[in-house]
Known about the structure:
Layout (H helix, E strand, L loop, with lengths): L1 E2 L8 E2 L1 E5 L2 E5 L3 E3 H8 L9 E8 L8 E3 L4 E3 L5 E8 L2
Parallel strand pairs: 3-9
Antiparallel strand pairs: 1-2, 3-4, 5-8, 6-7, 6-9
Amino acid sequence: MSEVASGHGPEVRTLTIVVNGRATSATKTQLSFAEIVALAFPQGTTGDNTAYTVTYRRGHGEKPEGTLVEGQMVKLKDGMIFNVTATDKS
């Protein structure tokens, strides 16, 4: 699936990724830890003591599965699956 914005510039490829069981579209080639957390919890969470764990699978051949930590980015692949959990750092 492809789309071209305004008929000018490079072709923009839309990827489908799954975040916490919900399919979503991405036009970027990579996403950050923070962007994936925002997709998982668009309304945010309450409290300053919240920590997130991001795991993924069905990634690129060199690293098809793994864990992201704050500040990291991951290269996207169509059909990639992300699981994001929030825990209280009490």
